[in-house]
Amino acid sequence: MHLRIVACLLSVTLLAGASLPKTGPLPEKKPTEAETSKPAEEKSEKDAPKTDRDEKPLPIPDHAKPLTEKPETEPEPVLTIEPEDSKEYDACLAALKQIGATFKEEKRIDDGKGCGIDKPLTLDMVLPGVALKPEGKMRCETALELARWTKEAVIPAAKAALPSEGPLATINQASSYVCRLRNNGTTGKISEHARGNAIDIASFTFKSGKSIEIRPRDEDSTLAGAFQRAVTATGCLYFKTVLDPGSDAAHETHLHFDVLERKNGYRYCR
């Protein structure tokens, strides 16, 4: 009896065990054809990871911005007429009179753009018996240095080199005061002629009527060549700038003298 019961229970157990599925992980669901063919970019934006493009761009600092416009150019310096020191001017006039120059004081010149002379004068006679032709307007300092150079350097050189031509009669000038840029250029710095600081010497005329014209004479072995080289070299003892025909093409026919003050007393002579 007991054995029959046990056998029945065993049969029930075996039948129940045959209907139960095997244990273990469930297989993954295979994607459908539609899902596999969907392009990646068609995914929902909300599912896409956030990138830097989603953030607002940071402002570019000023120093890193590209230049879209040309920077403003600095304004050109305002050129003014240098005022004369009254004491120095009076002392210059006294020295000019003492050396024997003939001149006339003029009204202040102001031609704009820095051109002008605070206390100009018109020089007629450099020394007694030595005329300046044509007469020229300039500062007193320019006139005084011209007179000193003529007396102490030009006349002695003329006596040594050209004694048969008689005394020096005329200094022929090519330019004194004139409102212009250097070398008559259209751009560049203002000329010292425009400030009354300069004079250009074109030639020297003697009592005999002979004239010595300024021209390239470095290789001129005549006494006229020696005279020109002598007066050119001594010019730098009186003027701050001396330019002769050997300087450049712009000075092939004259000597340029000026009294432009430079730092540390530097003089430009060539």
Automatic annotation (TrEMBL):
InterPro entries linked: Extensin-like_C
Signal peptide start-end: 1-18
Record carries keyword Signal: yes
Top-rank taxon, per record: Bacteria
Pfam families noted in UniProt: Extensin-like_C (PF06904)
Extensin-like C-terminal domain mapped to chain residues: 91-270
Start and end residues of each stretch annotated as Disordered: 19-84
Segments of skewed composition (Basic and acidic residues): 27-73
UniProt keyword list: Signal
Protein name per UniProt: Extensin-like C-terminal domain-containing protein
Biological source species: Rhizobium giardinii
Source lineage: Bacteria, Pseudomonadati, Pseudomonadota, Alphaproteobacteria, Hyphomicrobiales
